[in-house]
Amino acid sequence: MTNTVQQQGSRSYLFSIVLVAIIGGLLFGYDTAVVSGAEKALQTFFRDGLGALYTPGLHGFTASSALIGCVIGGAISGFMASRLGRKRSLIAAALMFFISAVGSWCPESGILPYGEPSMTLLAVFNIYRILGGVGVGLASAVCPMYIAEISPARIRGTLVSCNQFAIIFGMLVVYFVNYMIRNNLGETAEAIQSAMVSLGWRRMFLSEAFPAGTFCLLVMLVPETPRYLALRGNESKAFSILEKINGTAEAKTILGEIKATVNEKREKIFTYGVTVIVVGVLLSFFQQAVGINVVLYYAPRIFENMGASGDASMVQTVVMGIVNIVFTVVAIFTVDKVGRRPLLIIGSIGMTIGMAALAVLSFTDSIGVAALVFIIIYTASFMMSWGPICWVLIAEIFPNTIRSQAVAIAVAAQWISNFLVSSTFPSLSEWSVGGTYCIYALMSLLSALFVWSRVPETKGKTLEEMSKLWKK
Fold first, then answer.
1. How far is CA 375 from CA 197, 255, 430, in A?
2. For position 297, what pLDDT does the model report?
3. Is the pLDDT reported for residue 265 higher than 50?
4. C-alpha 409 chain-centroid distance
5. How buried is residue 471: exposed, middle or buried, by Cβ count under 10 Å (0-12/13-18/19+)?
6. Position with higher pLDDT, 310 vs 324
7. 78 or 273: which carries more pLDDT confidence?
8. What's the pLDDT band for 312 if we cut at 50, 70, 90?
């Protein structure tokens, strides 16, 4: 190790580790959004074979069945992260992504008749999607936890926010991949539609296998987090990693702080009171209750309802993905300067305006360019606030000795909320599209009040300082 690295640490080493970790975030986004391009073809495929048995409610379940796995993955993430470690948990998630991608591509699995829709085939397809969801649930909890535990406090918010950038980038990539797959299926709209039902949706799900396999190979090369190693008594290896990242002097200080918290008694989940857990759960709840994943999962269908054709709706979805990327970058460059609380409150106000305007446009049947503008205002507000910063807070707000269990509870709550919001949207939209948007606007307003009254500012604080924060 050179003298410079010993004194200051290696930024390239830190960034290379984070770059590998955020591929898990990319797969998180890829897996949850791949269904956006495939769900209409899936509906036609199963409805043609099952007829009236394939109800809108059953389609809502099929389109969002991966979220059941996300709940499971989030719930078991604490157990896996504390028993297997952060690194092995990410390897397990990568394997689940890969198996799910291949299985969703061919749910017949060489056993069932190929291309013949049945309730059995529907069940098997959903099982593969749920397995991928378990991988998403694991990655959604462990990726930000891994990045937070390996990052210096002064840039922790920025680096954890990069995970959200990867999530949104994964969504943008899959929007583009879905668009390319769809356009390469035929020359005419009729030919494309027919090919989508027989082949297109399968290729969309299979495309995830390539980044999943890459992630599985690369994550084997990164180290375990210093805080997990210290919790397991491997202080020499923890120090070695800290030294490479922070330099010798700072590594000694950080390791001393970690050991001080590790040497505290093995703490139960409510050692620091109920409030810290409730804050984590409500952060997760509001991130989903504002309706963001309705816009992300059903984007092509929403744009078609506004009057866009099939190709135009997919292009508008890609444009929206680019907007999401840009405003996530805004959060990355401001979260460690402005702070967590101000960005969350500003984002909540923007989302309230966007959703309220969409509700008014829906009630007055004034859909068109204005609706696209307010969808962009809504999603931009989310992406520069609740999208990345909720994950930053969940990764950093809990004390070391309860982090893995508390993160698991918060992430499970997030995916439960996600499932409820996403699976109920088809039925709610049949009741009243404008009324549904009003519900999301109200939740956006309530999220601002919650942050203002209950969420502490964590900018610049070390993970070890969280114990003191909540003991107060």
1. 29, 46, 20
2. 55
3. no
4. 15
5. exposed
6. 324
7. 78
8. low
Token pair, residue 198, equals 């027989």
With bands split at pLDDT 50, 70 and 90, how would you rate the model's confidence at 60? confident
Identify the DSSP state of 196.
I
Under a CB-based contact definition with an 8 Å cutoff, are residues 164 and 306 in contact?
A: no
To the nearest 10 degrees (0 to 180), the angle between helices 35-50 and 119-150 is 160
Please, are residues 165 and 158 in contact by the beta-carbon 8 Å criterion? no
* Cα 104 from Cα 207, distance rounded (Å): 10
Q: Which of 55-59, 121-125, 153-157 has the highest mean pLDDT?
A: 121-125
Contact 220, 85 (CB under 8 A): no
The whole-angstrom separation of Cα 281 and Cα 397 is 12
Distance in angstroms (rounded) separating the CA atoms of residues 301 and 37 = 9
Query: Read out DSSP for 110-125?
Result: TTSPTT---HHHHHHH
CB 118 within 8 A of CB 51: no
- Overall average pLDDT of the 392-398 stretch: 87
| Helix 66-83 and helix 86-105, axial crossing angle in degrees, nearest 10 | 150
Please report the DSSP string for 271-285 in residue order: TT-HHHHHHHHHHHH
Q: How many CA atoms lie within 13 A of 201 on its CB side?
A: 24
Distance from CA of residue 469 to its chain's centroid?
27
Region 293-319: mean pLDDT is: 61
In order of 72, 73, 140, 285, 396, the CA distances from 407 in angstroms are 13, 12, 10, 13, 9
pLDDT at site 408? 87
Residue with tokens 């950038």: 165
The 3-state secondary structure of 382-411 reads: HHCCHHHHHHHHHHHCCCHHHHHHHHHHHH
Of the candidates 261, 226, 260, 232, which has an alpha carbon nearest to the alpha carbon of residue 245? Answer: 226
Residue-level length of the chain: 472
| Nearest in space to 386 (alpha carbons), one of 463, 450, 337 | 450
Euclidean distance between CA atoms 107 and 255, whole angstroms: 49
Among 434, 436, 435, 442, smallest CA distance to 364 is for 434
Nearest to 211 by CA among 148, 166, 181, 180: 166
d(CA 326, CA 348): 18
